[in-house]
Amino acid sequence: MRIAISGTHRAGKSTLIEELSDLLPTYVTVDEPYHQMEEEGYAFAETPSVEDFEAQLARSIDNLEEGTRDVLFDRCPVDFIGYLLAHEDSDAFDLDAWLPRVRGALQKLDLIVLVGIERPDRVSLSASDDKALRLAVDEKLKDLLLEDAHGFEVEVLEVEGSPRARAKQVLAHLSEAD
């Protein structure tokens, strides 16, 4: 299966991928576009710009084009749409222009696992974390993925609890899908 782990920053996505990698040893993991691009020398602004998020969105779409089965993606295109819609310069982002490419890419996924912010929040934040942006992106992602107003038509599983509990929810869902 091709599974993307989605969520705002500091929600537990990477931790969930680590848990799932241990439980699904035949799966390949694909790092999030930010880290891929940073390793390649892309110079992100200190506070990411609309252009930075659009570049990550394009990379995320490209990542899904690869035909590998049994893969865990750290983030999917919807993550970057969430960031772009929550960005202070969101009016510079043309969602309608991106939707056909995003829909096409998402059809290459079998499942998106949404890791949302829980109440109470399980993740400790540092003083440098942008709490308002984190909450805004979490809200956008829940709207985009759970309400599916843009017709992404991909299966979404929202998980909660400890990293192990989240991983078990994914495994249970995969078992039901077989």
From TrEMBL:
Q: Where is the signal peptide?
A: none
| Residues of the NadR/Ttd14 AAA domain | 2-162
Q: Which InterPro entries match?
A: NadR/Ttd14_AAA_dom (IPR038727), P-loop_NTPase (IPR027417)
Under which name does UniProt file this protein?
AAA family ATPase
Task: Please report a single Pfam family linked to this protein.
Answer: AAA_28
The cross-references to Gene3D superfamilies, in alphabetical order and at most eight, read:
P-loop containing nucleotide triphosphate hydrolases (3.40.50.300)
* Taxonomic source organism: Myxococcus llanfairpwllgwyngyllgogerychwyrndrobwllllantysiliogogogochensis
